[in-house]
Write a structure and sequence with these properties.
The structure is a single chain. This protein has 8 helices and no strands. With 144 residues, the protein is mostly helical. It folds into 2 domains: 39 residues; 105 residues, no CATH class. Helix 1 runs antiparallel to helix 2. The two termini are 31 Å apart.
Length: 144
């Protein structure tokens, strides 16, 4: 994008109209595909959920397009709220009993699987995730 911005300024009043037209056409194409991310937040969400990238990718690549970043953040947050935030995660009964061989759960096991009723604010997993820095040590997101 930076190359396009520089080229647009460089050739704006140039006698080489074909270069100016090419740069403008590239911007139109870029805007077209960016606008498709408005239709489905899947692209932005997959980048954000990549532990190596998160929002840093967009902060760097779209640094001159702050409205794009703001809109993308809003869209991903809305996807989180409407589709995932309120889902109740349940432990698989076989997973819950792996440490316990059929006996009654002891006090510690009960404490570990019981939500803390004393907590003041419910944790928003997405907000918590976004606060963590990208983890550049992860080289293969699928194996992670």
């Amino acid at each position: 994008m930076q190359h396009l911005e520089v080229s647009k300024l460089e050739y704006e009043y140039s006698e080489y109209r074909h270069i100016t037209m090419s740069v403008n056409n590239a911007w139109k194409m870029l805007n077209k595909y960016y606008n498709l991310t408005d239709i489905s937040p899947v692209y932005v969400t997959t980048v954000v959920l990549n532990l190596q990238l998160k929002w840093s990718f967009f902060k760097q690549c779209w640094r001159t397009r702050l409205t794009w970043i703001a809109e993308a953040r809003r869209t991903v947050k809305q996807l989180w709220i409407t589709s995932y935030r309120d889902q109740i995660l349940t432990l698989n009964s076989s997973t819950a009993n792996t440490a316990n061989t059929g006996e009654e759960m002891d006090i510690l096991e009960q404490f570990l699987i019981t939500p803390d009723s004393r907590s003041q604010q419910p944790i928003d997993e997405y907000e918590e995730y976004c606060c963590l820095k990208p983890d550049i040590r992860i080289t293969n997101i699928i194996q992670w």
